[in-house]
Design goal:
By secondary structure, the chain is an all-alpha fold. It folds into three domains: 1-330 and 410-481, Na+/H+ antiporter like fold (Up-down Bundle); 331-409, no CATH class; 482-506 and 559-643, no CATH class. 72% of the residues lie in helices and 1% in strands. The chain has helices at residues 2-24, 28-40, 52-70, 73-78, 80-105, 111-121, 129-133, 139-168, 174-203, 209-229, 234-252, 255-292, 297-340, 342-357, 373-381, 385-411, 416-424, 430-436, 446-475, 485-507, 557-561, 576-583, 590-617, 622-640; strands at 565-568, 571-574. It has a two-stranded antiparallel sheet. The two termini are 45 Å apart.
């Protein structure tokens, strides 16, 4: 009964903190941490201890999975280099340096145990990144922080395990540590990829969105549990499964499934994230009590925590500064190389387009001094036109992706200002607390080390979390903003072309004189759709194309009067957004709407494929693509719902 009461009160506290955070401008994690600490010190509240395995195996996998599903995979790929530096090199370096310092300042703590403690304090927390996201900094900063928080636990836990083994048996070598890390990552990659692919194929055959959501709740555990038993990183396996799900889900899962799953996962994420920080605060009193009765005392623990916390920031700054310089030089080198080969690249793209169209005669392309020379040789080795066309499409897409990457790096460079935010936003949190509690009770000064870890995590969240807004105002880094008008127009043009292709195919053979057309039209407040809440209202009208003009039902006065169709010369233009709203309206005759509904669904699905292809190539920002995909999803959900 006590556990049930705690669960109910804790859930209400999480909800209250989330509501209160919007009013006072403080992250919910900090409110729950402070509230839990205050409640934990009340005399009638018993000391609380949480099994660390529950956090590592029961809470963190779904949290990291949820974050990985929502992250832009194209942006994650682009930021893989800085993420790898922060998640591997920085964690290992921090563990070593902090370990050496702790061995000097804590009496009776051997170097092996000190390095274990350094590994506990080294990883940042993906959960704590929500504090930085609320400030509206650029997506590049958020992607780097999220990617680091998703992957650095593998490095930290491997170093921790190796250090503990060295402290207890003395039989660990550097080669063994590197081998253990490689095994943990490779197993996690394999298991996570397999679970992500298989789960998507299974979920694609589920017809009920509720059942699909239930199955999705098991995916992070299906990835983490086998990976752990195979000596891999269960958390990284959950992350990989989440990345696969987020990238492939829009192509394989119906919109209703994805919308329902996303909403329910947000609820789970809010609850579990709040639970971690609430319990962290409640545990504080019991640990303080133990340390106060020990020889080292609370004051020394606070002093050690201050030193360790300062070291985490200093080491992070020393790694981030040169990393950003290297990334800047790399981007500049790529840009120069691209400009030098711009003419050859342009001709190569034209050649690929000609190959796809089946044109055999093309002027020679000057590849001799271009790095793309091998591409031409590979194309010449092919003899089957279909195979050549597929390869040409892939290679052309790869070139466009490189160009889009350069535009992305140029639009949002990571300079000194952004580096300052990356350094200060690297907060410690749930992983530090959970990893600290996995220390064997035989470790010297066990309670003391637990308190140091908790103080570093709590201090990091409190000091850095509360001062991060002031730092952002002071250094003025690149901030996230709405898509510019040029990008909006490009996305709309992409949708228009996709709809036109479907209309052309549908009209072919029906009437040789009918020329399907697509019109974006002007933003109209009376246009069906949720325009008041979107930054791109034109998306509700771009999904337009002409049906067969011989179809008299589509020309009924009612359909024209309500904006479902309209005449433009000899052509007829239909609006899927208007048809979707009419389909959900019980006053309409659905047999009258059925032909236009099928055409609208074809156009929406073609537009989604075009958007996803553009996303794979990184042609537009993740926010613009996500917004457009959401609009299409809601239209398709309305069109595929059961008529009233």
């Amino acid at each position: 009964m006590d556990l049930l009461i705690f669960a109910v009160l804790g859930t209400l506290a999480i909800a209250a903190a989330s509501q209160l955070s919007d009013r006072i401008g403080v992250a919910p994690a900090l409110i729950l941490l402070a509230g839990g600490t205050a409640v934990g010190f009340l005399p009638f509240i018993p000391a609380i201890e949480l099994d660390p395995q529950l956090v590592l195996e029961g809470v963190l996998p779904p949290l990291l999975f949820s974050t990985a599903v929502s992250i832009s995979t194209i942006n994650f790929r682009r930021e893989l280099a800085p993420v790898a530096v922060l998640a591997i090199l920085l964690v290992a370096l921090s563990a070593a340096v902090i370990g050496v310092v702790l061995a000097l300042v804590v009496p009776g703590l051997s170097l092996a145990w000190a390095i274990a403690m350094g590994a506990i304090l080294s990883p940042t927390d993906a959960v704590a990144i929500s504090i930085a996201r609320r400030l509206g900094v650029s997506q590049r900063i958020i992607t780097v922080l999220e990617g680091e928080g998703l992957l650095n636990d593998a490095t930290a836990l491997v170093v921790l395990s190796s250090a503990v083994s060295a402290a207890t048996s003395g039989g660990v070598s550097i080669g063994g540590v590197l081998g253990g890390f490689a095994l943990a990552v490779l197993v996690a990659l394999g298991v996570g990829w397999l679970v992500g692919e298989v789960s998507l194929r299974v979920r694609s055959h589920i017809t009920d969105p509720t059942v699909d959501t239930v199955v999705s709740f098991t995916v992070p555990f299906l990835a983490a549990i086998p990976a752990d038993h195979m000596h891999g990183s269960g958390l990284v396996a959950a992350v990989v499964a989440g990345l696969i799900t987020g990238h492939r889900g829009p192509r394989m899962l119906p919109p209703a499934h994805r919308v329902a799953s996303r909403t329910n996962w947000h609820t789970v994420e809010l609850t579990m994230e709040g639970l971690i920080f609430l319990v962290m605060g409640l545990e504080f009193f019991g640990i303080v009590e133990k340390v106060d009765a020990s020889a080292l005392g609370v004051v020394r623990a606070i002093a050690v925590a201050v030193v360790a916390g300062a070291l985490t920031i200093v080491i992070r700054a020393l790694v981030v500064a040169p990393m950003l310089k290297v990334l800047s030089h790399r981007t500049a080198r790529w840009a120069i190389h691209w400009q030098e080969n711009e003419d050859a690249i342009h001709q190569f793209q034209n050649r690929c387009s000609a190959i796809v169209r089946g044109e055999s005669e093309m002027p020679p392309v000057p590849w001799d001094r271009s790095p793309l020379a091998q591409v031409q040789r590979r194309l010449r080795r092919e003899t089957n036109h279909e195979s050549i066309a597929r390869r040409a499409l892939r290679l052309s897409s790869r070139v466009r992706r490189r160009g889009a990457d350069l535009d992305y790096f140029a639009a949002e460079p990571l300079g000194t200002r952004e580096g300052a935010v990356i350094v200060w936003a690297g907060m410690r949190g749930a992983i530090t607390l959970a990893a600290a509690q996995t220390l064997p009770t035989t470790a010297p000064h066990h309670a003391f080390l637990l308190l140091v870890a908790m103080l570093v995590a709590a201090g990091s969240l409190t000091i850095q979390g509360l001062t991060l807004p002031a730092l952002v105002r002071l250094v003025s880094p690149a901030m996230a903003g709405p898509a510019d008008e040029e990008e909006k127009a490009a996305v709309i043009s992409l949708l228009v072309n996709a709809a036109r292709d479907v209309a052309s195919v549908g009209a072919h053979g029906a009437s040789q004189h009918a020329v399907p057309t697509v019109s974006t039209g002007a933003a109209d407040p009376d246009t069906p759709g949720v325009q008041a809440t979107t930054s791109m209202p034109e998306l509700d009208k771009v999904s337009q194309a002409a049906p067969d003009p011989e179809d008299n039902e589509s020309l009924s006065p009612a359909t024209e009067q309500h904006g479902l169709v309209r005449r433009e010369g000899n052509d007829i233009v239909v609006s899927p957004a208007a048809i979707a709203k009419a389909w959900a309206d019980p006053t309409w005759r659905h047999d009258e709407l059925a032909p236009m509904r099928e055409r609208a669904l074809d156009m929406i699905r073609a537009q989604r494929e075009a958007l996803l292809d553009a996303g794979d190539e990184g042609l537009y920002s993740a926010d613009s693509l996500e917004h457009a995909l959401d609009r299409l999803d809601f239209q398709e959900i309305m069109l595929t719902s059961e008529p009233h």
